[in-house]
């Protein structure tokens, strides 16, 4: 297991049990026992489907999702934090077309540049130069001071990466979740860079603000508890990183299930769930706890004005528990003329759950941006969202489920 897959965040809050009556205790125990049984059944079922999907595709985590960049380097942030950057040079018959934009990918919270494995392949083969980087405290990038873990600093980090790796030429910026917020911070602090060089932007499963009301699919009361106690609990657990790592490794199947539940809206191969879990494992508790409070305070609505008139894609999943669809609706409201794609049966980690649809939409964005040539002076009115269904994935999940039923009968 590599360094990135050796650590895991543990987000659960810590509670205290006070005085309870015998009746309440008994009912609680009965309820927990029933819930545990249901969870165990679902874990077993989902695991079988996930393994069957891998069998159908012949995929494994280590062989299928590993990619060697053409070049990798370290860019020093303004405060000296080393940022890991990878570059894929353009390939395919269109690689020598002049003035093609470079695509820069920014990943989300507790992920890394590895989440873009399908997109980097599709875009470089289509003739585009691709730049991927690990945000501070994530993946192979270094860690900073605790007070440096906030969205504004991430915008400054992205500016450094662009200045060092893509100092000239047109740009397409793609950001997922926290990476989308990074794009907003860049637009707020470096508006000239965006207006002069960015010809297209994609905001994938992200938000301009209002995250303090998100329930994470847990219900209003439990969601509020996560917001209130999550950062403190994560901060305490940072002192016990080794113990947390050991406990989680011992329950890897359970953690794959938890990650699957929070990240995806449809069945995914086990190798995808494991890849996602491994990326989350790589993020240290001190980083997680330091970023957490900033999400509730995040408000970058005014930053989107910088992106008006630029070809823009807003894409989200219909079943996203972390940045629900209303957050993408708000981005589209603030960016008239943005292409708005809603993927049915999709959760938060869209790039791994529905890679073909995202690849298709990114290539369409690139095509529009190249045709436009110059930023639009009069952006069109807002359009209604286009809802997309991944029929092939639905069919594959049904086939996997049917195979399991035949095996058990």
Describe the structure in your own words.
- The chain has helices at residues 22-57, 61-64, 117-125, 151-165, 178-189, 191-197, 220-237, 241-250, 252-263, 270-281, 285-297, 325-334, 350-353, 355-372, 391-408; strands at residues 71-76, 82-88, 102-106, 130-133, 171-176, 198-204, 311-317, 339-343, 386-388.
- It has 409 residues and is an alpha/beta fold.
- A 9-stranded mixed β-sheet has the order 1-2-4-3-5-6-7-8-9, with helices on both faces.
- Helix 12 (325-334) links the parallel strand 7 (311-317) and strand 8 (339-343).
- The radius of gyration is 21 Å and the shape is globular.
- 43% of the residues are buried.
- InterPro entries: AB_hydrolase_1, AB_hydrolase_fold, Carboxylesterase_BioH.
- Residues 101-355 form the AB hydrolase-1 domain.
Strand order of the largest sheet: 1-2-4-3-5-6-7-8-9
CATH topology (level 3) name: Rossmann fold
Report the radius of gyration as a whole number of Å.
21 Å
Question: How many angstroms does the end-to-end distance come to?
Answer: 37 Å
How many domains, as an integer? Answer: 1
Protein name: Putative hydrolase
Domain AB hydrolase-1: 101-355
GO molecular function, one term: hydrolase activity
Organism: Austwickia chelonae NBRC 105200
